[in-house]
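Can't attach files on this board, so I'm pasting raw text. These are the components:
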Amino acid sequence: MTGSALRVGIHDLAFATAHQVLDLGALAEHNGVDANKYYIGIGQTEMSVPAADEDIVTMGAQAAAQILERHGADGIRTLLFATESGIDQSKSAGVFVHSLLGMGENCRVVELKQACYSATAALQFALGIVARDPREKVLVIASDVARYALDSSGEPTQGAAAVAFLVTADPALVEIEPVTGLYTDDIADFWRPNYLSTALVDGKFSLAAYLRSLEGAWSEYRDRGGVGFDQIDRFCYHQPFTKMAVKAHDRLVTIAGAGLDREARRAQLDASLEMNRRTGNSYTASIYVGLLSLLEHDDADLAGRRIGFFSYGSGSVSEFFTGVVQPGYRAVLRVDADARALDDRAPIGFPRYRRLHQDVDAVAGEDYATAVETPGPFRFAGVSEHVRRYERTTHA
Ligand code: HMG
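---
Top answer:
Structure tokens for the assembled complex are below.
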């Protein structure tokens, strides 16, 4: 089902994460709980932790650089930056990335926010731009650092990662189909007031709200002519922690009346959880990290197979939609580089994790320079005269 002659979708998808990692066993030890509560109960083994000179811009630029290296910047006239860990109340983080990557002046750059959902809004807006003029190419970046207060119940569900994807006509990776189901509900399940650097959350309520939104979005998707559950081969959910996707898929199987046993349900889902289990929550990027994980870790040939996506952003806005994996998709993936991005992170101990967490708030309003720490190609150098300074590193 393509719905129109013009095929539009994701042509390329690249990943980056922070360069340090904390094993959740260390957090479990500090909290005096069994590590399996995190490893199995919430389905997270590790979380990426940004160094002092890493943030949403450096991760986003590192992801996007891989796209430009392959395709060049010519023809990219729109850059959409989705995040909920914005670094300025006015200027888009995308403008910093645009500059770091040396992109051309004839480009619109804007930041989008609606909790974890906004990368999907960016995707839908990008599809519209390309559908209107198939010569257009849109670069979408989703980048977030998930932060909760120290010693709060959300702490094991932190993390950091970015994706960048190119939306074009005749996509090489995943064609996005036109039918979508939407669901918006004004609730306080998770939010971050302007005066806080960490999110507030009503944990159990947020889980229930996520599942209720899934039902609402799926229902509208079906009402608008979306395909039946049995015509979808794989599923990819927003993953605040991987067990949430498992709960969501179980719920969808039930409401769709699909009657699948545990093994069959997990076969539709499990490959999408591999990378997120190691990055932790990456808010806007999470569902697209899940897509990359699915494409890279599913042993089956997914060409021609349909993926169902459920994107959820607290507050809340959500969307169910589908895409079809394109023939030759494996040639587009960067499997080794993505594995290295996870494997090569520097393990840090619990005291350093705590210190970095506290340091984020320590210097508000003053000039400062960050220590040179990241082994990545871009770094946040510090603040002078209230302006954030970014630079390429010698690894670039
Ligand atoms: P908690 O209360 O500490 O954990 O917080 P729990 O007691 O519910 O235990 C978690 C699971 O571990 C349970 O499994 C336990 O049974 C199990 P379940 O019953 O749920 O299947 N467990 C064990 N398993 C194996 N061995 C053991 C063991 N002990 C316990 N020894 C909570 C958990 C997720 C609530 C907390 O971490 C939190 O508040 N996280 C943040 C909120 C969140 O992620 N919400 C998700 C939905 S909202 C969303 O997705 C949007 C978001 O990404 C933000 C945005 O949109 O911008 C968050």
